[in-house]
Amino acid sequence: FLTDADLIHTSRGIIPLNKKPWIMDIEHAKSFFDDHKPLLSGRARSIVRKFILSKYCKKVLPHCIMSYKSLVSAFGKDIKEKLEVMYPAIKPYRISKKRKSSKIRLLFIANKFFEKGGKEVLEAFEILSKKYDLELIFKCITPFEFKEKYKKYKNIKFIEENVTRKVLFSSFYATSDIFILPSYIDTFGFSLLEAMSVGLPIVANNIFAIPEIIDDGK
Questions:
Q1: What band does 98 get if pLDDT is binned at 50, 70 and 90?
Q2: Predicted TM-score (pTM) of this structure
Q3: Long-range contacts for 66-71 (Cβ within 8 Å, ≥24 apart)?
């Protein structure tokens, strides 16, 4: 696109073609492509390297140290001069927590059932509910067989419809006690920041950037 701006800010691996200075924030080296396969191509990597090392690229801002390492691994150590880690942030969300139930409410929010650990959340809840007085808010598109298997648990509420960001915070995060995300695929995990912004403790997997977000035991 044409612009008379002095600086272009872009995201998610979208490289400006304008002869203008630009910066980019990015989650992972694969963000430049549709999937991981082009990372195996020397030609694809050399094209991205050319743009990163050009005089127009002023800074590439990986979201975390692991993102930084993925970029160096994919495109070479000489791009380090263009890299600077910039953690995304969400301001604290101030809202009163009011609900009638005395049960400990667990919250799982995800857009992909298996990849985000939905199966494991349900299995863990089945075990924990035998010992503790719990309820689970499970917001995800859930395969039919799992909803059938767990429909006997009246303390599990399956939610699939989309909600506004305001409702997400006021009716989900702010009314829960613990957020759970045993994800297998997150390179950062913005839902973790959302949960922390209302003061929720988190249970999550020890993968990629998650240890940079969660201070274990605190």
A1: low
A2: 0.85
A3: 66/187, 66/208, 66/209, 66/212, 67/26, 67/27, 67/28, 67/29, 67/187, 67/188, 67/209, 70/28, 70/29, 70/30, 70/187, 71/26, 71/29
